[in-house]
């Protein structure tokens, strides 16, 4: 047995490596929802973390490990590779497949675990939005996925929407940039896979009757195309129309993309051709992280920043850093602390806070006045949170497996 790993945890050595993953004793395993897959995947607890173990051929495990590490280096939303365990054999000397170990993505759910009875149009629409945005981000960085599907994606809640993460990089390849042909090919694969998945759901009676699989898979392509166009189109502007560029950059920021530079070239009629260079998604995530140290998804970050900006305006603080620090200690932390420990497993703190400010807004709308944070928190805990299932991958917490 041979381990290649970025993190050396001696507990790894004590696992039953000479047994096929499928037969590992329950004491090592954690039951968490998982998507459909060809390979055997099991969740294993090591110390305070949970990891996903996937049994596969050595070459494939190593390739996927390298690719996931490369994606991590460019801060791409994907699961984190931890180790490859190769050269395994049974007690009798029979060779066993290698194992790729990734860290379990906390609070993430496979799409089938996001709905209990039928997949409703609004949920489907949000899933497709998240997936289209993930593919756009991917293509901007030069990553060709080669097997985009709902099953190969994990979703985390993001203030009423979803944030998508890549979970299966087996077929991927990282290039300097992608040609239109490569992008088109990747999208075609996505279209076919999603069509198949929607048909499966339909056959199992899990798809809302108003959803047409044919339309759904077209839609992910259209959403992708719209977003791609908005990010990359070249715009001809007059010399004095600077605000056009500023407007474009603001729109891109709103969509969550950061612009590093703007390339301009003059054209014959005295106008300029402008093309922004989008560096990365996560504009709000980065601003929130910089100001407060909180790591949130894009839409959560947008909501939290709105609250922070309002707090700053109300309290007349000019210094952004100082306002952020006070907001964190006087608003954010007290709200999170108000949630009893046994309810904290239900949602991560950033999502909790985003939902509470949404709830406060709704209550205030109904009452016709600001109901205040204290009341909003109590009402949210009593009327909303208690009814939610647990979503954290907590040690010892059993969540029904979908396999
Ligand atoms: N790090 C992780 N965190 C959470 N869930 C994970 C993780 N790794 C794998 N999973 C779960 O296991 C499932 C299967 O993983 P994966 O898609 O990598 O397997 P596969 O056999 O290569 O799939 P395919 O059949 O598409 O080739 C995923 O859908 C996901 O639900
Ligand atoms: Mg897969």
Oligomer: single chain
CATH topology of the largest domain: Transferase(Phosphotransferase), domain 1
Q: Would you state the CATH class of the largest domain?
A: Mainly Alpha
Overall pLDDT level: 88
Specify the CATH architecture of the largest domain: Orthogonal Bundle
Q: Largest sheet, order of strands side by side? A: 1-4-7-3-2
Largest β sheet strand count, sense and barrel closure: 5 strands, antiparallel
Helix fraction by DSSP (H/I, runs of at least 4): 40-55%
Succession of helices and strands: EEEHEEEEHEEEEHHEHEEHHHHH
What is the overall silhouette? globular
Number of strands: 14
User: CATH H level of the largest domain: which superfamily?
Assistant: Transferase(Phosphotransferase) domain 1
Structural class of the helix and strand makeup? alpha+beta
Q: How far apart lie the N and C ends?
A: 29 Å
Q: How many discrete structural domains?
A: 3
Number of helices: 10
Output the radius of gyration. 23 Å
Task: Give the tags.
403 residues, Transferase(Phosphotransferase), domain 1, 5-stranded antiparallel β-sheet, 3-stranded antiparallel β-sheet, binds adenosine-5'-triphosphate, binds magnesium ion, tRNA A-37 threonylcarbamoyl transferase component Bud32, DUF4032
